[in-house]
Fold these 3 entries.
Entry 1:
Amino acid sequence: MRIVNEEMSWIHLLMILLITPVMGGCYQSRSIPSWDQKLKAEDRFVLVLDDEAVLDRETGLVWERVPDTEHLVEWEVAVGGGCYNKKVGGRKGWRFPALYEVQTLVDPSQSAPSLPTGHPFILNSSVINGSIGFWTATEQRQNGSMAEAITFSSGNNFLLDKPVGAAFWCV
């Protein structure tokens, strides 16, 4: 076993030496999110990008802190550029999340909103009471005119006709 450990050390050193110049001369350690851990909200969520976005340490995803619920749009508009053109915390490059990614925010033991207690997101009352649904990038396979949406009053997902207006939350 000692040989394997020494070989692994050499492999790690070689990777650091090869990657460091590509990263501008600094080695950055990034922990890989682990699905076997469940963090409390104060440890799980970290405000980033001038407090305009939230890093989820359980999944590694970065979410906008305040999703736009003022402009409800059809699915085609949302998926066609709603996130790509958005600027949050001085950064572009946002994307439309899949259903499984949005579901990682849901805490089934909570309701109105169905987010972990102590989360740092800023949500208006229409999100909390469930009158606004959020689009996801997940289309229904059997019926191309519908896509998955989610409500954060209950955390449930549902199918919604694509021409209907809904909010979207960028990641």
Entry 2:
Amino acid sequence: MICILLFYPNGGMKMNLDLSALQKNLSENYIGCALLSKEQTESAAKMLIDGLISNGADRERAYVLCLGQGFLWHLFSYGMVKENVISGENATALFNRQKKNDCYALFSIDRVGLKLSHAGRLKQNFLRNACSDYLDVTVFAADLSWAYAFTHENGIYGPYFYRRKKKDLPL
């Protein structure tokens, strides 16, 4: 399942997401889609932070900086996730080639989420084409084996791709 979480940073400008176009594109590519509650959306964002950051103090910092400000990609740009991260054009290529099934995706806009299933055909352009250039998106596997983020700072920060080493994956 992929869950698309939409975050709107406090005091930030309203971003534009064409949710109906995204849902249509996903459906045309046989990717299931269901709307999440705000509580489910927040829970998925916390799952990402908890899964990628083991140190308690760093995790609290991530809650403040990433959840509080609404920019989950700062997990990568602020160096909170340091290992196994690739940035730049290679990150998008890796995401597009990544095997996907059950995942979450987080958008920087209203705290709204979508849960997606059978996401093998999901590509970065599906997400980018559905939103303005000022929207940030973080996508990650439900088992936290990989994560991808692209930002409104296109060409300055990111995109970022993280893949957990196989030895670190749960059995």
Entry 3:
Amino acid sequence: MRYLNREEAILQAVKIVKMRKKKFFFTTLDRISIASRRFYEISAEEEEKIIKGFNESDNTLMLVVEMDGRLIANGTITRLSKKKMCHRGNVAVSVLKEFWNLGIGKKLLICLEDYAKEWGLSQLELDYFSGNERGRILYEKIGFIKVGETPNAFILEDGTRYNNIKMVKGI
């Protein structure tokens, strides 16, 4: 068996497609991050409603990354809909832990930024949880800057607390 080098793995893994009526967002990605495991308890019905909303929205796009037919990452961009804020978009990315360090999250963010430009947006925004240093480093590397922090934004059942950190990038 031949192992792929880093570049080959990225090329093979990053098959990005617009999601169309697929019912796997949370159930398939439930191992991705603290956010999906600990912060979001979601039923199949709620999941279906979210996916349906994405599919019917002109302001939200979800990209998924598949490798050998397996969903390994996703990214979303949502354009704010109010007239005074429609130049802004909120992005989010999740990658299965076993696929970290392949450039997939970076590639997703770059693709989402390209869509943002097509939509005529001039600012991207994201939120992440304190303790996500890998995410922070990536976001800063591609030009996001920290603009705020909400202390104790999330309190888990075990009492663990996480701050919510807000970043923006002009495009």
